[in-house]
Amino acid sequence: MEIDPGRQRRLGDGETADVVDAVINSRKSFRRFLDRPVERRVIEQILQVSGRAPSGTNMQPWHVNVIAGKTKRDLSAALLEAHHNAAEQHESDYSYYPDSFSEPYRSRRKKVGLDLYGLLGIEKGDVEKMKTQHGRNFMFFDAPIGLIFTIDRELKIGSWLDYGMFLQNIMIAARARGLDTCPQAAFAKYHRIIRDHLDIATDQIVVCGMSLGYADLTAVENHLETQRQPVGEFTRFFDL
Ligand SMILES: Cc1cc2nc3c(=O)[nH]c(=O)nc-3n(C[C@H](O)[C@H](O)[C@H](O)COP(=O)(O)O)c2cc1C
Q1: Checking CA distances to 49, which of 117, 127, 171, 191 falls within 20 to 30 Å?
Q2: 105: three-class secondary structure by DSSP
Q3: CB of 114 shorter than 6 A to ligand 1
């Protein structure tokens, strides 16, 4: 089999590192998008390159549903209806989060919520406004493209690890094309509705969704900047 010469290139120069780091650093979650379409060809490119993600024994456990137009509008309407009127009747197929949070996760989680609601002028305890804001997830934050990701139910935690690499690739490949994203676990809770609308078999688990489009940089919620721990806080070095 012929080897793609592009993949054999050595990329150790500082210039490439600067570009790749800049693309990674420029990714963040956007929560309001412009009404500007994204071509199917571009989405296909993004998914093609993202599929280069590694996976244990090359199992490639990802399944993607790309939705736009009427399919997206109809799904969003059904999800919003459930979010506002029947939230307690729905439950995710898997636990993304633990039942209770210990430190430091509790504080970090609280901070991102407070910062987002603070920017939006939503006061602590204003449950209605918080619910409305959370509901914007189901509109894919007005992005023209929605992605719904599923995985075979029989697969194990290792394949979920592979899945994360695929998802990150999508977000980075999107950025490299001037596009923005928001990964969204919020969709998992409403997997029954998603299954109905997109004809997804019961042997699939809805992992998450993702908004894809051009961010509205003037929107206040897009001014949210999250912090990260310095390397020394999460790394131990041995013998170097
Ligand atoms: C798998 C996954 C699921 C997420 N689910 C949601 C979600 O449902 N809604 C949302 O607004 N943000 C969601 N986020 C975004 C996180 O809040 C965000 O990544 C985190 O606060 C760090 O901010 P940044 O992405 O801007 O760097 C999710 C992120 C990941 C990786």
Answers
A1: 191
A2: helix
A3: no
Within 10 angstroms of residue 102's Cβ, the number of other Cβ atoms is 8
Rounded CA separation 215/30 (Å): 6
d(CA 50, CA 229): 27
Going edge to edge, which strands form the sheet with 180-184?
63-67, 145-152, 204-213, 180-184
What is the rounded CA–CA span in Å between residue 111 and residue 90? Answer: 27
Q: 61 near 55, Cβ under 8 Å?
A: yes
Pocket test for ligand 1, best of 28, 182, 190, 191 (most atoms within 8 A of CB): 182
Contact between 35 and 213 under an 8 Å Cβ cutoff? The reply is no
Give me the pLDDT at residue 93, please.
Answer: 96
| pLDDT value for 23 | 98
Instruction: Report H helices in the chain.
Output: 5-8, 14-26, 40-50, 69-85, 105-119, 127-135, 157-176, 191-198, 231-234
Whether 174 lines ligand 1, by a CB cut-off of 6 Å, is no
Residue 121 CA to its chain's centroid (Å) = 24
Taking 50 as the pLDDT cut, the residues of the chain under it are: none
What local confidence, expressed as pLDDT, does residue 2 receive? 55
- Give the Cα separation of 47 and 63 in Å (integer): 11
Please tell me the distance from the alpha carbon of residue 109 to that of residue 21, in angstroms, as a whole number: 25
Domains of the chain and CATH, by start: 30-96+137-221 (3.40.109.10)
